[in-house]
């Protein structure tokens, strides 16, 4: 079987009848995405529901074996998938970007197939025997974002399939080709109709949240859209796992070494050019080392190349779409007008091709400035001076989101004490944003609810049933 980029695009391109998808780095046409409708969704749910009955009757081992074969298929197609992802999403091939994302898809499939989830006796005392087990939900709707389109599709679909569900995927309108291509590769291994993709706009997303044939929704995206899904899914009482907006805080204590942490801080904030839900988006630094941290971070940032993703030397790319460029640009300009100090960046070439926004560091900024309290989702990091850990904790917890956070310190025990006081689903020590398929992940407050990854993630994609007797 040929595994070239041309073969992959041909398999998913809808031709001139579809919607043109542009490369955010060059404005060139990447391909054409099908424009499907709520009727197409209804047909897909019907086929998935029929296929699910046979899929759900297979053993866990049989389903896991197919996930392992799917991982092999992803690796076979790895380079074409990475090239398509780079062209459509904008992220470079190298660094923690396109090749990394495709590799993570294969790794996640394998990890998901490796977890043990057996029936659990909860009482067995000679008189009463009760066993907890998990049954398939049926059809799961997976609504994904444009920032990590392939990897988050795997996060949603792999555990759903492992638990015996069929899945209907709705990719972002900005990155449909990447997800169509990934699912094309997966479907070369999976039974027919178990995994469906419906590429369309808001009409399709809205129909997923109300469709009576869908038993659960996995959604990664904005808090505003998550709230709409909660409301519209209530009529059919769907199960929900929602990973919503972040605006993650990082806290640097006065005993940290600025030079030693600069690289970790940078990638915590600027992975995927800042377009990551759990990226570090506001940094609180103790006054005693504030200037040194600013200098060390700026020194490191200056050496990180940004440009067209297919050029091998680049590790930062453009913003994925014009709307996100305008959000970042507006927040940075407002911060500059307020008197905040620009350490680096903040002067995009608005006439150039693509949506490139330069790596930007903003110091001496008011803690209530919109760049701090609103999620920028791009390559612009505000650095806030604080008196001590108490002020940092208070400011970190002041917002209504809590996906992730981090604490940076030379004293790991002290860092853990601070971490325990932060209102976030995950708190990293001396790093930020790393995820692991074995470790549960989810948010608090308006960053959503439900856990993904690991055995806890599997449980969220099954219906618990107690057999008592």
- Compute the number of strand runs: 20
Protein structure class: alpha/beta
Q: Just give the CATH class of the largest domain.
A: Alpha Beta
- What is the gyration radius calculated from CA atoms? 23 Å
Number of helices: 16
* Separation of the first and last Cα atoms: 52 Å
CATH superfamily of the largest domain: Aldehyde Dehydrogenase, Chain A, domain 1
Task: State mean pLDDT (0 to 100 scale).
Answer: 97
Identify the strand order in the major beta sheet.
Answer: 12-13-14-11-10-16-17
Number of domains: 2
Low-confidence stretches: none
Task: Tell me what you see in this structure.
The protein is α/β, with parallel strands linked by helices and 469 residues long. It has two domains: 5-244 and 447-468, Aldehyde Dehydrogenase, Chain A, domain 1 (3-Layer(aba) Sandwich), CATH 3.40.605.10; 248-429, Aldehyde Dehydrogenase, Chain A, domain 2 (3-Layer(aba) Sandwich), CATH 3.40.309.10. Helices cover 40% and strands 20% of the residues. It contains 16 helices and 20 strands. The protein has helices spanning 5-12, 38-57, 60-76, 78-89, 98-114, 149-162, 176-186, 202-210, 223-233, 258-270, 290-302, 322-337, 370-373, 389-397, 412-419, 454-459, and strands spanning 19-22, 29-33, 120-124, 129-136, 139-143, 166-170, 195-197, 216-220, 239-243, 248-252, 280-286, 341-344, 360-363, 380-386, 401-402, 404-408, 426-429, 444-445, 448-449, 462-468. Strand 5, helix 6 and strand 6 form a beta-alpha-beta unit. It is globular. The chain starts with a helix and ends with a strand. It holds the Pfam family Aldedh. GO terms for molecular function: oxidoreductase activity, acting on the aldehyde or oxo group of donors, NAD or NADP as acceptor. Residues 37-56 are annotated as: Disordered. This is Aldehyde dehydrogenase family protein. Belongs to the aldehyde dehydrogenase family.
